[in-house]
């Protein structure tokens, strides 16, 4: 088991472009979470999946954000029409029930 | 609904002890603790579940007062490697696994 893998590690994009991030969770974990973290803050919840079902999406998340987890395996997070305020570290985590998260190394997004 | 952590920052000498507190306004199912070093992802330290069960690192201790929705993380005989930012994450009684993280407590251990 190699842990939670996220790609790419870094992404620089121009404002208005679309970006997609990928997360490969630990295979035995049925729960997968996306968080966003800015400098000096704790991770902010975006959305989560149990198997392939997206069970909750943050009300803070605009319609420009969408996530999928086909077949309950890897997950993708897409941001459409990026804005400078989207610049952040995007963290993926997976877990089993009643246990802690294993975070991936994150994708750092910079919107210029 | 974000849990409140205190203190915001702590500076210690090696071997000294520290306590980090986390307080929520909501009834909780569990409290998690994570440590994050600069430029790295948060690393799981401990989970404290409603009912008293705890899982995590043997060298880390913590408490969870379910009635007060408060948790404390105890760092004893601190080492240089303990430096980092500590986050508590609270899970409400819906038991979805979704965590709301506090703003963090920065710990610096000096030689």
Show the helix and strand layout:
The complex is a heterodimer of chains A (112) and B (111).
Chain A: E1 5-7, E2 10-13, E3 19-24, E4 31-37, E5 44-50, E6 53-57, E7 65-68, E8 75-79, E9 88-95, E10 102-103, E11 107-111
Parallel strand pairs in A: 2-11
Antiparallel strand pairs in A: 1-3, 3-8, 4-5, 4-9, 5-6, 7-8, 9-10, 9-11
Chain B: E1 4-6, E2 9-13, E3 18-23, E4 28-36, E5 43-49, E6 54-56, E7 61-65, E8 70-75, E9 84-92, E10 100-101, E11 105-110
Parallel strand pairs in B: 2-11
Antiparallel strand pairs in B: 1-3, 3-8, 4-5, 4-9, 5-6, 7-8, 9-10, 9-11
Task: Explain what this protein looks like in three dimensions.
The complex is a heterodimer of chains A (112) and B (111). Chain A has 112 residues and is mostly beta strands. In chain A, 0% of the residues lie in helices and 50% in strands. Chain A has strands at residues 5-7, 10-13, 19-24, 31-37, 44-50, 53-57, 65-68, 75-79, 88-95, 102-103, 107-111. In chain A, strands 2, 4, 5, 6, 9, 10 and 11 form a 7-stranded mixed sheet that branches. In chain A, strand 7 and strand 8 (75-79) form a beta hairpin. The N and C termini of chain A lie far apart (36 Å). Chain B has 111 residues and is mainly beta. Helix content of chain B is 0%, strand content 55%. Chain B has no helices and 11 strands. Chain B has strands at 4-6, 9-13, 18-23, 28-36, 43-49, 54-56, 61-65, 70-75, 84-92, 100-101, 105-110. In chain B, strands 2, 4, 5, 6, 9, 10 and 11 form a 7-stranded mixed sheet that branches. The termini of chain B are far apart. In chain B, 37% of the residues are buried. The mean pLDDT of chain B is 93.
